[in-house]
Every structure is written in structure tokens, then in C-alpha cells.
């Protein structure tokens, strides 16, 4: 049965992909083992079954707690146009919203937070465990939670706690109205400096700079966004941006430090992902500091949040929903969270993408530099997809087109040449 229609972007069947029980699942730096070793000893098996159920539940809650931004319809017209929907063209902006939204959740919510409404879901959307595996305690919890089935997920257990208030506040910042600091109207407005208008295709490099401008102009004054230039992260520039210096890099407090969202636009192949970089992408997604990856080709951007074996796990913005009035008290939240896990092979990943990282403190940034460098240098390729360089960028690069550059590229065998910011770099 068709359950939704994506306007201007074709249709898709909302199905239940089955995750493998034999391999761990990685979701933004956290690994989940969705199987147990079946032993003959029934006592041991019961313990394993109970642990498995807890792992499955933990994964479901973590995934469903991610903020999901999709096409919307019925919002106020975008400035300079008559458009009241972004269906068919706004998927990259929606993917960028998801990336930033996750960064804000990391920044403002307690570590390990999950949306309370996901704790009372009774439907196993992931289909990773058979009913026979569920232990008695889980069956009891499912029976007890039946009374919640008729309640909106947007109001379930929304008791007015500080965490839920913050959760709702973050969602409201992405509302589809001109006053929302990270809403579609604001992002389109900021895109004009790059020559973009409502209805245009936005690439992953341009949206990285749009996010940087949006955060800088917002009320989130203790967060800074740094966009790497030419696939190079200049550590000195990051430290200046966040208000610190090399001398106190190892300090463990946030005093005098703006938390960091690091965005790195890269290109990982020509027309498709270079297979040599598959392992590198996996290693990045395994890092706790990784916020995810946005990428895609025209009219098909996705937000990658994990993987299992050779399949990427992602959130898909290509689902057109009615706009939500986030200015209302207790506006419904369910359309901002997704329960259905979607997968696709790595070889279908478009090579144009932006990788996001978060560092809450100076010490976190120091660890980020070390961990990401290790992940990059373990690649089979001779040159990493991006690098960290001490010091500052002596040239102020101004690239307003959505092209990508690398530090080095091959000209002739054995020769290396620089590429300008207006040339598109392809990893061979």
C-alpha cells in the first residue's frame, strides 16, 4: 500500500527494511549489536534475549529521537516568490536542517537524551527481533503502554520538563515561517548572497555556508560554525573563532569557549562514491563527534546517520507533509521524528557531501582533531579527504559556487598541482 506521495519528486513506498541480526548497527558513533549467540543453556539464553531486547529498544529510541525535516506544504510564501511548498527542490536545505538540528540537540540536551514519546511506542518498526525473542518484561511493558496508543506522539509524556521544553524550542527554530532562525524562509534568504533563489537546487557546500551565517545571526551565542576551505581545517582559525588559544587548548571547561559545529564540504569521487573511501566514511560515522553527513544530487539529498555492513542508514526529506504552526502552544511533534529506518548501498551514495562534527569544549575539539585524523589516515587512499593544519588560512577564499576543492590533485603521473576554488576536484 502506498502510504505517502512526494510531490514533484516521484513516489516512494514506505516499507519496513529489515536490519541484519548478524551485524552491528552504527548510529552516529554508537554501535548496537542486534543479535545474541544462541546457547543451549536456557538461563543464559534468557539473559541474552533480555539484553537483546534492551539493545533493540535503545536503538529504536535513539533513531526515533533524531529530528526529521522534510518537504512541507502550506507555509507562508517564500520572499520573492509565490512558492508555498519546497517539494521537488528543497531537499538539500532540509538535509542541512537535520544536520544542524542534531548539532543543536548535542549542544543543548543532556548526553544520551531520547524523546519520551518513543519510550511508549508499541510497534516494532525495525523488525530486528522475532516475537519469540521478546522476554516477558517487554511483553508486559507493551501491554501497559497500550493506553498510550491513542495519544499523539507530540503530546505523549510532554510534561513540561526543561528537557522537553528545550526539545520543543529547538524544533520551533526550524519552523516554516519567516521569523524562524533556521527555517526554510531564513535559509533561502541567506542563500541569495550565493546567487540562489527559492526553487533553485542548493548543493552541500553552499548550505554549509548558509548554516554558518544562520547560526552567527541567531540567539545561540555560545555556538560557532566553522566551514573548512579547500578541504582544510585551520586549527588556529577555529581557536580564534571559538575564543581560545593554543595555550589553554586542554582546558576541560567551557569558560571563554564557544562550542563548535565543524562542517567540511568534500567530494568523494566523480559520478559515484570512490569505493576506496567507503571505509573512511564508515570510520567517520563511528566517531562520537560526528554529526552525520549531508549529500546528494539534484532533487535527491539525504542525511546519512549510520550504517550496517555495506548499507548506509539515512533520514529522507523527500516526504511532503503539511506545515506545522510552531508558534502554537504544544504544537504536534510527531511529524518531526521518523520511526522508519531506511538503507541504501554505499555505492549509491553521491560523492558530493558535507561532513559535520561537534565539539562542546576545547578538550573535545582536541580529541576531535586526533580522532578524525586517525580515521582519515586509515583510508586506503594516499591522500586523506581533508586535513587539519596548524595555524591560519592566509588567504581569504571566496567561493560562492557549489564546487569542491582539495589540497592536492594529480595532474600528470608523479606530479601534484594545486586547484583553484572554482575548479571541481574529483578523487580518482
TrEMBL record:
Keywords: Autophagy, Cytoplasm, Hydrolase, Protease, Protein transport, Thiol protease, Transport. Coiled coil: none annotated. Its main location: cytoplasm. Residues 58-370 form the Peptidase C54 catalytic domain. Cysteine protease that plays a key role in autophagy by mediating both proteolytic activation and delipidation of ATG8 family proteins. Belongs to the peptidase C54 family. This is Cysteine protease. It comes from Cyprinus carpio carpio. The lineage of its organism: Eukaryota, Metazoa, Chordata, Craniata, Vertebrata.
Amino acid at each position: 500500500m502506498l502510504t505517502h506521495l512526494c510531490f514533484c519528486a516521484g513516489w516512494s513506498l514506505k516499507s519496513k527494511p529489515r536490519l541484519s541480526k548478524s551485524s552491528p548497527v552504527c548510529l552516529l558513533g554508537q554501535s548496537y549489536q542486534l543479535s545474541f549467540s544462541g546457547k543451549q543453556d536456557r538461563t543464559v539464553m534468557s539473559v541474552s534475549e533480555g539484553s537483546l531486547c534492551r539493545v533493540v529498544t535503545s536503538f529504536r529510541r535513539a533513531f526515533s529521537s533524531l529530528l526529521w525535516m522534510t518537504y512541507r506544504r502550506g507555509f507562508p510564501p517564500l520572499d520573492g516568490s509565490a512558492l508555498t511548498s519546497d517539494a521537488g527542490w528543497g531537499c538539500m536545505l532540509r538535509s542541512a536542517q537535520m544536520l544542524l538540528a542534531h548539532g543543536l540537540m548535542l549542544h543543548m540536551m543532556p548526553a544520551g537524551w531520547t524523546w519520551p514519546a518513543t519510550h511508549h511506542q508499541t510497534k516494532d518498526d525495525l523488525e530486528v527481533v522475532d516475537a519469540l525473542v521478546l522476554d516477558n518484561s517487554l511483553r508486559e511493558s507493551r501491554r501497559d503502554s497500550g493506553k498510550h496508543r491513542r495519544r499523539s506522539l507530540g503530546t505523549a509524556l510532554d510534561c513540561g520538563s526543561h528537557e522537553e521544553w528545550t526539545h520543543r524550542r529547538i524544533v520551533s527554530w526550524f519552523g516554516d515561517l519567516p521569523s524562524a532562525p533556521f527555517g526554510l524562509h531564513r535559509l533561502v534568504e541567506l542563500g541569495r548572497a550565493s546567487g540562489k533563489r527559492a526553487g533553485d537546487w542548493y548543493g552541500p557546500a553552499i548550505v554549509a555556508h548558509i548554516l554558518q551565517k544562520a547560526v552567527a545571526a541567531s540567539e545561540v551565542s555560545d555556538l560557532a560554525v566553522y566551514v573548512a576551505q579547500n578541504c582544510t581545517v585551520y586549527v588556529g582559525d577555529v581557536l580564534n573563532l571559538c575564543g581560545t588559544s593554543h595555550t589553554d587548548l586542554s582546558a576541560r571547561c567551557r569558560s571563554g569557549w564557544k562550542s563548535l559545529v565543524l562542517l567540511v564540504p568534500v567530494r568523494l569521487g566523480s559520478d559515484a562514491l570512490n569505493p576506496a573511501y567507503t571505509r573512511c566514511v564508515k570510520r567517520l560515522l563511528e566517531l562520537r563527534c560526528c554529526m552525520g553527513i549531508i549529500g546528494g544530487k539534484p532533487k535527491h539529498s539525504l542525511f546519512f546517520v549510520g550504517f550496517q555492513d555495506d548499507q548506509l542508514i539515512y533520514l529522507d526529506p523527500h516526504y511532503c507533509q503539511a506545515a506545522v504552526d510552531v508558534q502554537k502552544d504544544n504544537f504536534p511533534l510527531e511529524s518531526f521524528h521518523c520511526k522508519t529506518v531506511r538503507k541504501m548501498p554505499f555505492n549509491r551514495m553521491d560523492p558530493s557531501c558535507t561532513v559535520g562534527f561537534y565539539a562542546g569544549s576545547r578538550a573535545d575539539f582536541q580529541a576531535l582533531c586526533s580522532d578524525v585524523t586517525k580515521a582519515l589516515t586509515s583510508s586506503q587512499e594516499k591522500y586523506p579527504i581533508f586535513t587539519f593544519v596548524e595555524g591560519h588560512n592566509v588567504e581569504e577564499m571566496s567561493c560562492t559556487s557549489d564546487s569542491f576543492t582539495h589540497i592536492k590533485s594529480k595532474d600528470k603521473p608523479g606530479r601534484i598541482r594545486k586547484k583553484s576554488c572554482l575548479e571541481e576536484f574529483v578523487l580518482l
